Amino acid sequence: MFAPLQNDTLLRALRRQPTDHTPIWLMRQAGRYLPEYRATRELAGSFMGLATHRDYATEVTLQPLERYDLDAAILFSDILTVPDAMGLGLSFAAGEGPKFARPVRDEAAVAALEVPDMAKLQYVFDAVTSIRRALNGRVPLIGFSGSPWTLACYMVEGGGSDDYRLVKSMLYRRPDLMHRLLAVTADAVALYLNTQIEAGAQAVMVFDSWGGVLADGAFQDFSLAYTRRVLAGLKRDHAGEHIPRIVFTKGGGLWLEEIAACDTDAVGLDWTMDLGRARALVGHKVALQGNMDPNVLFAEPAQIAAEARRLLDRFGPHAGHVFNLGHGISQHTPPESVTALVEAVRTHSRAMRGLA
């Protein structure tokens, strides 16, 4: 059904196998920093117009690969597709970010939650298949979802939040409701990712973007436990290929060893964690992904290259590193800065392996 993979460097790195260079891709690599993305979004009329249109989603997913020598494509979509399919009424207001018309804040709303019919998300799976075909084996395609806890934050708050007051109030006042919400959401996320795999995703990533706002103890009970539940429900193999899983918790360095033990293939790191120390803590148990501060890309090309080399040196010439940013790329990033980064990673990682 799909063309043979020509560049499997990412998949080999996620399996902790030797590679000729350190693979690189960037969180939010298809986005507003690219003028071609902005042009396509204008044609689509809105973010959701872009994300729900198979051909537009395919086009913007491939745009960064036309500019840069990246080792993966990541599905262009949004982390809030699952709660939207649950009937919460997702919308995007200009300059305000995502909003839910029907947030989940009481017992009745939690009791009404169900794993949604995946037919409501067919536009996502159609995009996955379309992107995989358009890639024609060039690089692997990564599918993704928000973690149950991160989705719960948006579902309860009704949008983004500065203090997470409403979702944490439910967590502490009615932990039974929070556990019910998270269980249903975890089962929905697992089904969603499995359906992406069936549609053509060759690796999947769980974005626990707000796990780091939790207290120690609460993180394990309300975030990590439900990420584990997702991972336990995921396909290990599909169409004869192992499907690597990546877990990224922003602000999760404190719990690195616990995250690494949750049956994932790779752990994504934000920029606050030292790569050398991280590798010493987890050894060869998992691959590590990361972790340049996205704001380094506002420096001069020579400084960007120097920081890339420093991070590669901190990890060392070992198998199991995927170079990435420590969070999503800023919309204000100069596109030429990404060129400098990708070239530095490719050149220095090959030199580290004696292949310069």
UniProtKB/TrEMBL annotation:
Signal peptide residue numbers: none
Protein localization: Cytoplasm
One of the Pfam families matching this protein, by short name: URO-D
Catalytic activity: uroporphyrinogen III + 4 H(+) = coproporphyrinogen III + 4 CO2
Domain of life per record: Bacteria
Keyword Lyase part of the UniProt annotation: yes
Family: Belongs to the uroporphyrinogen decarboxylase family.
Protein name per its UniProtKB record: Uroporphyrinogen decarboxylase
Taxonomic placement: Bacteria, Pseudomonadati, Pseudomonadota, Betaproteobacteria, Burkholderiales
